[in-house]
Amino acid sequence: MAHEKLSPRQKMIGMMYLVLTAMLALNVSKDAVDAFKLIDNGLTLSIKNYALKNNLIYQDFESSFAQFPEKTGPYRNQALEVKQRADELFDYLQGLKIEIIKVAEGEDTEAIQGNEVIIDEVKKIDENNVPSQILIGSNDDQKAFFLRTMINEYRDFLIGTLQGGNLIAEEALKKSLNTDDVRSHRTGELEKWPNFNFQALPLVYVITMLSKIQLDVRNAETEVINFLFTQIDKSNFKFNKLDAVVIPITSNYVTLGNNFEARVFISATDSTQQPVITVGNQTLELDETGKGIYIAKATSTGNKPWGGIISLKAPDGSTKEYEFHSEYSVGQPNVVVSATGMNVLYTGIENPIDISVPGVGPDKIKISRVTNGTVTTGRVKNPSGEFFRGNWIVRPTTAGQKLLIYVTADMNGKPQNYDPVEYRVKPIPTPVAVVAGKSGGSAPLASLTSAIGVFATLPDFDFLLFYDVTGFTVTINDRGEDYNEKSTSSSFTSAQKTLLGRLTRGKKVYFSEITAIGPDKITKNLPPIILTIN
User: Fold this and answer.
1) 3-state class of 448 per DSSP?
2) H, E, C per residue of 172-195
3) What pTM value is reported for the model?
4) Which pairing describes strands 468-478 and 508-517: parallel, antiparallel, or unpaired?
5) In angstroms, what CA-CA distances link 416 with 245, 329, 355?
6) Partners of 441 in beta bridges
7) How far apart are CA 145 and CA 135, in angstroms?
8) What percent of the chain has pLDDT over 70?
């Protein structure tokens, strides 16, 4: 079989691994090194999942061997040899991890429980001498070099087991179990694989690297034993694993008043007989290929579970029944209305958007791309803490340029592309400065002198965001002479407080040169504030 696709969780772990490796190369803080614990926990969970998956495959080998020993025997023996070689390499890697931690922290370390490593209990995460001493040392016969030999032998053994029967899997094995020397990004010179991966690196990084290799070992094991299992003639036992299959003719999502249609059939059929398919008290009509056609009128909205039984006569004359379950969704017919003149998105913030296609379920809709910006799934809260409508977040790049959103919907298994939706892109509006809740007019001296400083607000702007005032000047006129005091933050300085204390009824105070910075990291000059003391 082809090299299996990585799950989103595994992709996330891989991405975090690359990012943190780069951060480690830059000699960042201990907190960044500590983040490797998160990666190692993810790798450890994936390793356990692969072990469970592989055990199920080995159980299938044993079941097949019990029924068809002659056909299954050779492939079963090869699979058991793969298991033995994989376990040897995996256990050697586990022993290295345990040895490194015990030497670094002592035999009584809480990070070792039996044969397991509890990475969260490792205290000396940034220890970088012990791993090098154990794995590299001063000679090329140290354990990391022996490990490379074991990996090479394991990889070559697996490729030999495939015997050219799966070229995609062979290429995957060559990449995942590659131990070639690496060209240093710093010097440009070739560096030995053991030195590049383990020398002078923190303990937690080395443990994580060894866990990654363990995951590669189990993944490679899965590839090869899956291939071996597919080589067995399945015709002798396929009827032991008959599965009921339900395939919608149109979609799992229909609108009120329309019909939901699905094909229901057995995955392995007998050309000499037709199955009997029942849903409730209804026996489905069969087409020429033995597939049943199920039709249900959509009379109310919501999820509609349904199912039935497929009956097939076995070779011994008995009747085998296979139960199946499925569901479809019924929604209200709807119309999408947009105020096209108000199609505006703002730079520097998360803009929520909602997308719907009549007759198509939300899970079948995606944004294929956007111009002048980026898009992710997620939700945005308004100032009251409630979520805006919409499950997409758009972040425009450049104000003054158009942003186009391209939408694709899955229509009966085929992608349907729609004309792009155009948005104008604007910068966040300039905020208004306030002092003691006032942006102008009059104010009591008591409220002014008790105020903390100058703040920026965005009145009537629905997005939840804040501007930080970075500086302002206070000016008063006393006995015909102007007095100025400047602050480099949003708070009044002691000199400014003294200046405000000189105000009397009828006097004016000026707040000017007000600057503020928002989430878009752009500094803006705010209009001045003039207040009269009442």
Assistant:
1) helix
2) HHHHHCCCCCEECCCCCCEECHHH
3) 0.43
4) antiparallel
5) 25, 20, 14
6) 531
7) 8
8) 83
